Amino acid sequence: MFETATELEPDPVIEAYKKDVDRTLIRENLRLTVEQRFENLERLQEFANEMRRAVASAEKRNRGD
Amino acid sequence: METDFRGLIRTLSQAGVEFIVVGGAAATGHGSARLTSDLDIVYRRTAENISRLVSTLAPLNPYLRGAPPGLPFSWSDETIRKGLNFTLVTSLGALDLLGEITGGGYYEDILPHSLTLTLHESECLCLGIEWLIRVKRAAGRPKDFEAIAELEAILDEQRQS
Hints:
The complex is a heterodimer. Chain A contains three helices and no strands. Chain A is mainly alpha-helical. Chain A has a domain at 22-63. The longest helix of chain A has 30 residues, at 34-63. In chain A, 9% of the residues are buried. In chain B, a hairpin with a 2-residue loop joins strand 4 (86-90) and strand 5 (93-98). Chain A binds chain B through residues 1-3, 5, 8, 11, 13-15, 17-18, 20-23, 25-30, 32, 34-35, 37-38, 40-42, 44-46, 48-49, and chain B through 1-6, 25, 28-29, 31-33, 35-37, 103-105, 109, 113, 117-120, 130, 133-134, 137, 145-146, 148-150, 152-154, 157-158, 161.
């Protein structure tokens, strides 16, 4: 089941996806500590949930509920 | 509900639970900018560790995520021993307990490929980036393609710096 520690062979599908990766974000994150990366994740999650609630609320208002 | 990633990690590590962070949270640790909603951990399936895991999480009221309330779900050593992987909701958020992961195996199998992450108030083991990529590749889920591409780009950046 387990691969030995060999180099990862490039996968053509993944290589195609890699072209769209924003490396500026990666470089910024690599400058942060692990703690700061988790802080960002938690803030992003909070923001995403706030946005979902806001959209749900706006849709409800538009329906006239 | 938001997941308190650092709170869950701190709770488990301070109680001495043996676990390795995998999945999206591990990717965050390595520098991913992608959003993930749950903490995935591979836990060691020894009787002692299962007992510690159960007693540590009990105050957080773990319950099967997405299941209707009132199911006869008992949070106990026996439940964990009889099962393997559990998707849970707790008072600190969503937590996936994995006894085994596709392409990686059990805790003991991935332990040599893990590294220690230092957080402000705790330390934990996290699957190394190369093995995180291998595991995600092995899962073969189209939804992971973008995440794998980002992890491989992070690996490229790390090797270039």
